[in-house]
Amino acid sequence: MKALLKVLFLCVTMYTSAQQNDPLLVLGKTTPPLVGNMQPEVYEAYKRMRQAAAKEGIDMKVVSAHRSYHRQRVIWNTKYKTLTSQGHTVKEAIQEIITYSTLPGTSRHHWGTDIDIIDNANPQSGDVLLVEKFYKDGPSSALRSWMNRNAADYGFLEVYTDHPNRKGFAHEPWHYTYHSLSKSYLKTLTNHAISEIAKDEKLLGREFLDADFFTSYIADHLLDINPILFD
Ligand SMILES: [Zn+2]
Fold first, then answer.
1. Ligand 1 midpoint to CA 162 (Å)
2. How far is 214 from 159, CA to CA, in rounded Å?
3. Which of 189, 195, 192 is nearest to 223 (CA)?
4. What string of DSSP letters covers 136-154?
5. Segment 210-228, tens digit of pLDDT
6. Residue 21 gets which letter from DSSP?
7. pLDDT digits over 156-180, tens only?
8. Distance from residue 2's CA to the centre of ligand 1 (Å)
9. pTM summary value
């Protein structure tokens, strides 16, 4: 029985690490097994965290979890067409897009490990993912302070902190990652998978995605995140 368990454990470990090294999965081009749009292990941890928060009056709600490459490319191409039709150069359009949106293939949402959450216990309206809604008397501010105290106990960490010197993506008090799984995906992405992205002929503006672009995008957008995520 012990030997059987050992083999089973080995299989799960091998499967998990094969997934984390799979460039197609990391790029969002294939989908990992999902429950509630998260990887099963992430969903289990999320459920426990949600139950604990509920005891303190917080109604945690996921507004975005896994997202495919294809979906991210639709977002990218739509913004690209709008900006270039308004007279922006390719370079300007891309710089504008990457202030708020990720280059397809580089969204942490591709991995099934990252979630955007709000507090549904308070009335919400309009765009629920605005920074001010997570501070002062905003509808998700109790959630944010609860997460500051407790999220790490369930394996979740904030990615885009409000550190004033942080570059790349703006502060996102709603975005959390399940760190024990996502750290390997980030390594696979930045070490080799990312070079595949510029080969996609349906990706608008791809001619601008040269070595210089990727060097600064990796440094500022992908790696200038909460330093705890490198522990
Ligand atoms: Zn997010």
1. 15
2. 20
3. 189
4. TT-TTHHHHHHHHHHGGGG
5. 999 999 999 999 999 999 9
6. T
7. 999 999 999 999 999 999 999 999 9
8. 41
9. 0.90
